[in-house]
Amino acid sequence: MTIQQAISSPGCGCYARDTPKTLISIDQALARIATHVAPVGCTEAVTLDRALGRVLAHPVLSLSMAPAFDNAAMDGYAIATGALAGNGPWKLQVVGRVAAGRETKASLAGKRAARIFTGAPIPDGADAVVKQEEVTRDGDVMQLTRRPAAGLNIRRAGSDMAKGAPVLDKGRRLRPRDIAACAAAGAGTVQTRRRLRVALLVTGDELRNPGDLRDPAQIWDVNMPLLTASLAAAGADIVASAHGADSLAGLVRQMGDMAAQADLVITTGGISVGEEDHVKPAFAKLGGETLFSGVAIKPGKPVSAGRIGNTHWLGLPGNPLAAYVTWQVFGMALLRVLGGEAVKGSARRLVVTDAPISRKPGRCELRPATLAGVDAHGREVVSFDDATHSARLGCLPMADGLMFLPANTESLPSGALVEFQPFCQS
Ligand SMILES: Nc1nc2c(c(=O)[nH]1)N[C@H]1C(S)=C(S)[C@@H](COP(=O)(O)OP(=O)(O)OC[C@H]3O[C@@H](n4cnc5c(N)ncnc54)[C@H](O)[C@@H]3O)O[C@H]1N2
Ligand code: MOO
User: Which ipTM was obtained for this model?
Assistant: First the structure.
């Protein structure tokens, strides 16, 4: 990784003439993550009951055809349609019975039928299953009046998956429906990336645990609970978490210890320009290499990233909304690359604003927004507060994502198209 400074192209539109030259655009920062960060190498085999949220290190191929054999899609009677001469009704001798999980030796040559249940193998000679609602039964004889088409109610072997067919690509983060597909393919164990080891250092002398007694100038810590929950939802292992004092020596020790045991150290706070902001000096003292240092974004301008030896570092701002926004945009991107997750397409889509916007231009603004419905053209509409306050969280639970207001935009009419990035669950 090389130390990089600025700023060549407007990228996502975050760049503005009055933006300090040390800041880069959102898309430039994301491009640096994509270019300079590599997945953590180790992989491990996990059984499906432990696979939720894990990232596939190898593709999953089907071990056999699915279904593995022709079988009944309905409870009813297996018959040979070729034996139905002339016009019905036809009477057939019921000569066998086959349930799911059983085999049958019954042969259905001639006017014969077998009682069959959903999932049971189709007996030799049969080529259709007639639902039991469509026949009458009298002792060992069943009668049907309508001619079934050959193949009716039969699930053909391999019609879902061929043997050896690709089921899931590597890089896929496994969700419940992926695990269902693995199970159907017979893949009881899958090869995955190991879970990321993340250390969390929340700085600030003013912080107390939520609900604890506090002095008048102290505040309850939002970032530790926020990031602990976010990392758990993202499937990372938190190998260390601590509060950090606003002191250079203390932070050097804590960040150094954490870097020795984690793939990624996340800090919050202490990253701006005041005398109490010691995170970047501590990072420098540890020999850290900078990936980016500040993004032309509001909120979250000081967000930074780099590497201490082989361990990555993400410095989030202290203001909780700024921490959440930068976690969503840069933290999740970093986690995905480190975790070997393949990312398809853009995280953003276009939506329409439900009110006019008037704002101070300068930095690209990422404003929490709520999906409020669709307009007459079927486009998604978002509603939002009239400003973004980087320390305010009251509106956050109602929001569904972030709308991107380009740096130079001073006003937008109601109905304007803007980019929108939905929040990840984590
Ligand atoms: N002279 C300047 N001052 C500031 C600038 C600047 O460019 N020049 N940038 C401002 C911006 S923008 C931001 S964002 C903040 C970022 O500051 P830090 O990341 O160093 O964060 P702190 O100063 O430590 O804290 C900021 C704010 O957030 C509160 N905080 C911190 N941690 C937590 C937490 N875990 N839970 C709840 N609240 C937290 C902290 O008390 C401060 O109020 O800097 C601006 N200043
Ligand atoms: O970038 Mo800061 O997040 O405005 O508060």
Answer: 0.95
The number of the ligand 1 atom at minimal distance from the alpha carbon of 271 is 20
C-alpha 206, offset from chain centre: 34
Sequence-separated (6 or more) residues with CB below 8 Å from residue 418: 350, 351, 352, 353, 382, 403, 404, 405, 412
Verify whether ligand 1 is closer than 6 Å to residue 114 (CB atom). Answer: no
Q: Which of 145, 167, 193 is the last residue of a domain?
A: 193
Do residues 350 and 332 make contact, with C-beta atoms less than 8 angstroms apart? no
> What is the rounded CA–CA span in Å between residue 197 and residue 192?
15
258 and 317 in a single domain? The answer is: yes
* Contact between 65 and 167 (Cβ < 8 Å): no
Q: What is the pLDDT of residues 46-69, one digit of tens each?
A: 999 999 999 999 999 999 999 999
- Reported pTM: 0.88
189 lies in the same domain as 57:
yes
Is any atom of ligand 2 closer than 6 Å to the C-beta of 319?
A: yes
Q: Which ligand is nearest to the CA of 270?
A: 1
Which residue from 228, 195, 222, 193 is spatially nearest to 209, judged by alpha carbons? 222
Provide the residue range defining the domain that includes 210: 26-43+194-338
CA–CA separation, 116 vs 43, rounded Å?
A: 45
In the chain, which residues have pLDDT < 50?
Answer: 1-18
Residue ID of nearest Cα to ligand 1 atom 45: 272
Ligand 1 atom nearest to CA at 272: 20
Phi/psi of residue 208, nearest 5 degrees: -130, 155
Tell how far the Cα of 347 is from the centroid of ligand 1, in angstroms: 27
Q: For 366, phi and psi rounded to 5 degrees?
A: -110, 100
